Automatic annotation (TrEMBL):
SUPFAM superfamilies (alphabetical): Sigma2 domain of RNA polymerase sigma factors, Sigma3 and sigma4 domains of RNA polymerase sigma factors
Protein name: RNA polymerase sigma factor
Domain spans labelled RNA polymerase sigma-70 region: 22-87
KW Mitochondrion (keyword) present: no
Length: 189
């Protein structure tokens, strides 16, 4: 199996197949990060596609300093920031667009309901965090990045990242202990 750097060299030489392998290798990571950050499957799919387009457009700027995966995640982090600044995001917030999942008919309905309810509570709690705390929590706990890596990706210092994670975890605990309703937390704080 070729390394990311070997695939990049082949892509620079014009290999379409190498590009497909590189995208397939990292697609799940990027989609998962964006979905956890944005909270909407359809938007996450679109933004993931855009991240890979940006990756291809800026591949000549990749200098193999650190992991390719982290460089790609940094593109995703910045793209999400751009999305939050966009007119589309503001319009979506104004219309209150929701994202729903459909259960598999062969599963135990009660177990699925309970599991989905708990996952939805956790997802909503994470989504209710301020952007900088949400980002730090997602990168740390869902993507297992170290504090230094998160600081590099978000262009902040390590103590700020630690503070954001601590504050985010504290808010998550309060939200989840209050029954998952972030409005209860906002009334208290």
């Amino acid at each position: 199996m070729l390394t990311d750097e070997e695939l990049i060299a082949e892509i620079r030489d014009g290999s379409q197949a190498a590009m497909e392998v590189l995208v397939k290798r990292h697609y799940s990571l990027i989609y998962t990060y964006i979905y956890r950050k944005i909270g909407n499957h359809h938007t996450a799919y679109d933004l993931t596609q855009e991240v890979f387009i940006k990756m291809m457009q800026s591949l000549d700027k990749y200098r193999q300093q650190g992991k390719f995966e982290h460089w790609l995640l940094k593109i995703a982090v910045n793209h999400c920031l751009d999305y939050y600044r966009s007119k589309h995001y503001r319009h979506q917030q104004a219309t209150g667009e929701l994202d729903t999942n459909i259960a598999d008919d062969n599963s135990n309905v009660w177990d699925l309901f309970q599991s989905q309810y708990q996952q939805e509570q956790a997802r909503q709690a994470v989504l209710s965090l301020p952007n900088n705390q949400r980002e730090a929590i997602i990168l740390s706990y869902y993507h297992d990045l170290k504090i230094k890596e998160i600081a590099d990706m978000t262009c902040t210092n390590e103590s700020t990242v630690k503070s954001r994670i601590r504050a985010g975890l504290s808010k998550l605990k309060q939200i989840l202990l209050s029954g998952g309703d972030e409005r209860d937390y906002r009334k208290q704080g």
